[in-house]
Amino acid sequence: MSKMDALRAMREARYEEAAARAAKPGAAPARPAVRRSAPAAKRPAKAAAATPVEPGAEPGLCGHRNMSGRTCTRELGHAAKSHRYS
User: Fold this and answer.
1) Which parts of the sequence are annotated with region: Disordered (predicted)?
2) For position 4, what pLDDT does the model report?
3) Residues 6+ apart with CB under 8 A from 71
């Protein structure tokens, strides 16, 4: 048996196993149901501190952190889409 034949046999066995599992009555759903939150208009208004300031960030600055841990040096609530890290 070649490597490709073994892979094909394994894939077909997994397919048949999954099909048999799905055909059982009372089988659990593949993914749990996602609970949806209320629309934004119906949510209660939050306090003015909607964007939490990172510890160590200066007050008045955005403070957004990127993956490497650098913080944004733009003003808090800036309109620019990009951040300026330092």
Assistant:
1) 1-86
2) 93
3) 54, 56, 57, 61, 62, 63, 64, 65, 85, 86
SS3 80: coil
Whole-structure pTM over 0.90, yes or no? Answer: no
Which residues are within 8 A (CB) of 59 and not within 5 positions of it... i.e. 6 or more apart? Answer: 53
Q: Confidence class of residue 17 from pLDDT cuts 50, 70 and 90?
A: very high
CA distance 86 to 70: 6
- As a whole number, the mean pLDDT across the chain is 76
Q: Max CA-CA distance within the chain?
A: 68
Helix (H, G, I), strand (E, B) or coil at 70: coil
Residue 83 Ramachandran class (φ > 0 left, ψ -120 to 50 alpha, else beta): beta
Give the residues across from 61 on adjacent strands: 75
